[in-house]
Structure formats: structure tokens, C-alpha cells
Amino acid sequence: MSLATDTRTLTFSQAIRQALHEEMERDERVFVWGEDVAVYGGIYGATAGLLERFGPERVIDTPISETMIVGAAVGAAITGLRPVAELQSSGYFGIAMDEIYHKAARWRYMHGGVFTVPLVIRLPEGAKGAGPEHDVSPEALFLSASGAYIVIPSDPADALGLLKSSIRDDNPVLFFEHAGLYAYRGEVPGGDHLVPLGKAAVKREGSDVTVIAWSRMVGESIRAAEELAAEGIEVEVVDPRGLRPLDLDTILESVAKTGRVVIAHEAPKTGGAGGEMAAIIAEEALEYLESPIIRVAAPDVPLPQSRYLQRYLIPTAASVMEAVRRLD
Amino acid sequence: MTAMDSGKLLELYESMVTMKLWDQTALRLLQEGRVLAGYHSGRGQEAIPAGGVAPLRRDDYLMYAHRGFGYTIAKGMSMAAMFGDLMANTAGATGGLGAGIPHFADPELGILGQGGTLGSCFGIATGAAFSARYRGTDQVVVCFFGDGTANRGAFHESVNAAAAWKLPVVWICENNGYAVSVPVAESTAGRIVDRAAGYGMPGVRINGMDVTEVYQATCEAVDRARAGGGPTLIEAMCHRFRGHYEGDPQVYRTDEETQRLLALDPITTAAARLMEEGAVTGEQLEELETRIQRRIDEAVEEASRAPMPGPQRVYEGLYV
Q: Which ipTM was obtained for this model?
């Protein structure tokens, strides 16, 4: 799995694996650890084959100890390594919260900037029928963890390019991967494909409405936009590709163009990052708005394990279409 | 315990006296209102940082505890920088971010910093030890923590992983009998040292008021870790002479108890031994103290000259 020269099609999961492979090949300070990441290859297959290629020194099965997985990754990062730590589910964030929030994000700052913490924490998130503790999208919780980047790819090309950039970055990165996307295929450019952190992508251009969406909701929003185009509504889909650093310029430029905003994410509405995003737009671009901002998000209930019931809660393309039609 | 040559003992004695005088000076600055935040005196426990840091090389890693500044003094951190951090001015290693209980570090000296949420030291120590081995060095990590901190869950996760992976860490628990106000007997099941057996690593309980004992136990553990023999847990039994923090009313213990402890002063004990062995005279020890105090005063002086940080400081050093 060396650098491919041509565009090819990869699943989201293969793209993650490709990014890890390329960066481990390039930099021997990069290592991967987490639960079942080595022999098993990760429960989503995202680390499959790494053990065979790079050996047990660099691909490490840890005990079921998230506090240690993140805490020790910080220790390794401040002493010259570049860890990529996997939490098997982003729902385990609570077990490692002190290590993520205070250690990874703040060790550099609180020690006067004498360290760098080049660490990536991979956090599979989103609805998949695994119950209220596993099926979370907790990225907004880390908005107040200044010091940590929050990066969220929405397709295989971004998964590859953003993960590679995250591994090369000297700041700690929380890298959220929607578990429902792992099997999705998409075109991925050849060569050393890097996507800069903090640069939003306009995934579809449009002039009537701006839909700001990330993670799985980007694909849903593009589908919604295609259907709405048939009704004569041109939707622009802006994917911030994460929450920090935030590419405000691209977002505001789009808002200025369309004057109408829908924000779509899978996490529940209250406490979701859409609230922060809406507040920023209200502060910075109220004069452009021709209609109130609408948030498309899950309701304020935990996601039940039943996929049958989850269908009633998880926002989809239909929810985005419904919101767009409600705009003045 | 085997005998220690008096030259080595004198070195450790000097280290302990430096810590004591540092502590006195910090308390004076606190009284004068020149320290912006609280301070956790290390008085009484000097034998542990002195004996526990002396066996380390310059490139070995240190996770220090919050009681006193002895660990970093012993590792060679700039005194002026540490005073600067106490005063929260720009002479500080944190450039003015810290105050009182600062989070200072010096990567060149292997000083990896300190977490305010106690127990987070464990994961970082395990990670630094992993890193040392990954990079093919023979660096060792020494992690100091109190009996109270030993009850944080991070202890289990990190100590287990370090033992399972035979990483080069020395865990030094300073058991001073109280987790802030709660006696260890009320909060802790069994003896902390006995946990070592559960993780399949050597554990030793020592008299933490005796610098020779601390030094020798740490040397043995450091040598084993460096040679690839994995981690060791040392439980150093000790006493703190002052409150958990300055201003602690100490309602959990009597004045008589505190007074009795003073007879166990590790510095007095070491001085008596040195004089008994005829290595030094009382007069020489006094001269030594004067010399060290001068060095400390100079550091205070140097730190005092630095300006306070400007408001821009809070935005610096967050992102790379």
C-alpha cells in the first residue's frame, strides 16, 4: 500500500488505513495504539494490515484502559513521538476526559509552551445501533477544550487527507470518524494527498441556501440539495471539516451569498455545535440573513439501541429538505 | 540497608537543606504577599525528593509531585525560574502563567511537568517510559505521587500497562498518612506497597524519613528499570510537618502529633549521622547553610527584577 499515483476508489475505512500506512512509512515516530488495533485490525478494520507491515513495536494492542491510552499517548507525544491513539468508540470519551480535556489539550499551554503535543486521537462516532453510550457524536463537548483541534472528515478523500495532515500537525487533534461512513466508497486523489486543517470545503455550490454540515450529514445534505435542485432551490453545502480551527471566512462568504442558513449535525440539538455556529453567524453576519437560522439535529433524547427506533431520531436528507423548505 | 559513604550522604544532605531553605523562603514570600496563589510546603519530606531524584541522569524523566519544589531543585531546574513562577512574573519557566503551584517543566532536564488533577501523572509517566524504549534509549522515568493520589483510577490503568509491558518506570509513593485531611487508614484498603505484587512487579516499603534508604531503594529500582527489568513500586513512609496547604487549619490532627513529628526531621537525622562519622563539623554545616541561603536569595533577587506579563501572554503558547 505505497503512495498511489492515480485517483482511485477507496472506502472511508480504507482511506483511514491508507493515511496511517503512508504516515507510518514516512515518519518512524508515528505509532498506533488502542484496543484491538493490532492483531484484529481495529473493530472497523481501519488498522488492518498495519501490524504485518510495521510490527508490534509500532502497532500496539492496549489493555481496555482509555485513561491510560490517552494519558500515555500524551507522555509519548511530549517526549518525541507522534502517537495515533484510537478510542474504540467516541462514547468512551468520559473514561479519558481528563486526559483529553486537560492533558492533551492543555499540557503545552499550562507549561508555558515548552512542549508540543503532536497527538491524534481517533474517535469513531455516530449512530450504528450500538446503544445510547456508543452511538454518540460528542464533538461539541470539546469546543471548550481550547488547545485541541477538532477534525471531522465526511468522505474518503477527506478522511485520507485530513488524517495525514492531523498526524503531521504539532497540535493535538481529536479526529472524529462516523462509524456509519466506514463502508462508503469515494474517489481519492493519488499522490501525497493532504487536506489542510481549518479549511472548509464547499461540497456543492448553490445560491439560495447555505447548509453547513459535517460528518455523515454532508452526504445527506448533498442528496437533499440534488432533490431540491429539481424544485428550483439551489443549495450550497459547506463542510467545515471540523470545529477547530474553524474556517469562518468560507462560512461567512457563503452566508453573505445566500442569506439563508441551515446547520445540520447528527448530535442532539441542545449542546450541539450548531448552536455555537449559529451564534457566530448571528454575531458576524446578521445583516445578511433573510430568514432565521434553522438547525437540523437529533432531538434531545439518548439514541436507543434499536435501529428501528433510531430511524425516527437521526436526521437525514429528508430532514434537511424539510428545513430548507421552511425558510422564507 | 547498607552503609553509605559520607561524601554521598553530604551531597544528599546539601540537597535536602536546599529544599528546606527554599521552602522557608517561599513561605516568607507568601507572607509578604509576593506569591499569587497557594503553596504546599514540602517540609519534613525532603528525604524523598533528595534521595529519589539523585539516582537519575540528566536525560531521565521526572514527574514531580506538588509538595514543595524539591524534585525540580534536585533535577537542576533554574531556581530563579521557579521563583519567577511563584511570583507569576516573566522570569518564571511558564513566562507568567503559573503562580504558587505552577506547572513548570524543562524538557532539556527531562522535567515533564505536573498535572493539577492529581493522578494524571501516571499515564504520562507510562507514556514517557514507552517512548524511551520505542526510541531505543535507556532513559528511566521516576514518578512521585502521594498516598491520596494512589487512589485515583488512573493508577491502575497506567501502572498495569507499564508492568505488563515491562516499561522503565519507578513509581515512588510518598505516604505521609493523610490525603489532605483524610487518614490513609480510612481511605485505603491494604498497604499501597502490596499492590506491586498484584501487578507482578517488585515493591518495597521504606522509611521515607531516611535519605540513605530512599536513595538506595531508588538506585536499585532505577538500575533494574534501565537494564530492562521493568517497573518498581516504592512506598516511602513519611510525615509532612505543615498543613496540606498554607492556611490549612489541620483540624484532623493534634498539635501534639505535629510536634512529635519534628523529632523525625530527615535533615537533623542526616546531620547527626554526618557528625557522628566525623565527616563534618557543626560549624561546617552552618557555613553550608549560609552558602545555600545566599544562592537562594540571589535567585529571588534575580526573579524579582522580572516584570509581570502583559495581557497578551494568555494567548501565547496555546497552539503551535
A: 0.96
